[in-house]
Each structure stands twice: as C-alpha cells, then as structure tokens.
Specification:
The protein has helices spanning 5-17, 26-33, 37-49, 65-87, 97-103, 109-118, 165-173, 207-210; strands spanning 23-24, 53-54, 61-63, 144-145, 154-160, 181-187, 194-198, 201-205, 213-216. By secondary structure, it is an alpha+beta fold. Strand 2 (53-54) and strand 3 form a beta hairpin. The protein is globular.
Length: 217
C-alpha cells in the first residue's frame, strides 16, 4: 500500500530528528511539524503497526530499520528533485526546496530512478546533503559547524543544515557557495560572530549563520 502525503511528511521529520540511537520524542515531532501531540501519537501508533517505529507510552520512539529505510527514500526523492532543478533546469539553490516539497510525493520509483540516471547518480544535493541510494543507504560525513572552527583555520564549505530561501540568499550575496575555501580570521568574544575570508574578501557572519554552515578540513 502506498504511503500518504501526511505519512511521508512524518517519515521525513523522523529522518531529520532522530538521534544517533535512532530515537526521537513525540514532543520533538509535534514541534517540528507544528502538529498537536494527540495527532502525533495517533500517527505513531499507525507507524508502529507498520513496524516503522517502536512505540511505548511515555518513552521516546525508536525508529526501526524498516522505518529508517522508508524515511530515507522520501528524502531521496526530495534531494534528487532539488539536484535536477539546479543542474538541469538552472534554478538557484535557494529556489528549489518548495518545488521539491511538492514533487517528493510522486510515487513512481521509475521516475526518480530515471532522474538519478540523467544526473549521473549524484551523491549530494545542491545544499551538500547526501542523497540516499535506492536502498535508503546514506553516506556518512565527518563535518563540523563553522562556529566550532578556530582562528587561522582554513576549511571547505561542504553543506548547510538549513535550506531556507532567506538563508541561502544571504550566503549567495556573500559569495559563500559550496566547495569554497573559508579562512577564519577573527571571532568576536561578545556575540561569537566570525570574520571569514573567501576569495580574498572578508565577511562578518553571525553565530546564527555559522551554526548552520557545515565544513570539513
């Protein structure tokens, strides 16, 4: 039986919220989805019946391997769509999230497999996030927040944790794009804002921004 649009939105939320043990609370899901707790509870009982989660009253949910795979496949559709829009339709990385939100609910596996083939099987989406493969497997990355870097370090901008249009426009205006080398020049003691150097030009970034920029050495 095909998953519903609502179920897929819950699955995607599970993907983004689970901790390293595969656990997430009802309260976290409620806040993330802006859905009332009783509705989340009812949906998670249905997920438990499908063996997507282990549900016990007053305990965190445990996402099963089957649930992890289902969630990864929804994310796969979303990230492949974003990549297709950028690489084949020339959309900016700041303009693809909302469109992908709509197309990710298409149920045709062949459609997304063909998209994957046309793109030559990309490993990452336009925001640097890994694209799950056809089996729901995902590449592990060893990344850190730019806010955790030290003065003098030079790192490579690899991914963002927020694909909000306003944030991506903020980065684009400052020439902060994926694969750019970023040198940490100064860190303010007062508000932890960071002065960085990119392509010979310096920019001051807020702590709010540097928390959402992921880099590698």
């Amino acid at each position: 039986m095909k998953t519903t649009l609502t179920e897929e939105n819950y699955l995607k939320a599970l993907f983004h919220l689970v901790d390293h043990e595969g656990k997430v609370t009802i309260n976290e899901l409620s806040k993330f989805l802006n859905v009332k707790m009783p509705s989340v509870n009812n949906m998670m009982k249905k997920f438990a019946e499908k063996n997507w989660v282990i549900y016990e009253t007053y305990k965190p949910l445990k996402v099963t391997e089957k649930g992890r795979r289902e969630a990864s496949l929804v994310v796969r559709k979303h990230r492949l769509t974003e990549m297709f829009l950028v690489k084949k339709m020339n959309f900016g990385w700041e303009n693809v999230h909302e469109i992908a939100e709509q197309l990710e609910h298409v149920h045709s596996t062949i459609f997304f497999d063909k998209m994957d083939e046309i793109l030559d099987y990309p490993k990452f989406d336009p925001h640097g996030e890994p694209i799950p493969d056809k089996d729901g497997n995902i590449i592990a990355q060893d990344l850190q927040k730019l806010s955790n870097c030290k003065i003098g370090e030079t790192v490579v901008f690899t991914s963002v944790t927020l694909s909000d249009d306003a944030f991506l426009n903020y980065l684009t205006e400052r020439n902060l794009l994926l694969d750019k080398k970023i040198k940490v020049v100064k860190i303010e003691n007062f508000d932890k804002s960071i002065t960085v150097e990119v392509d010979g030009k310096q920019e001051i970034l807020s702590r709010k921004a540097t928390d959402k920029i992921l880099v590698k050495k």
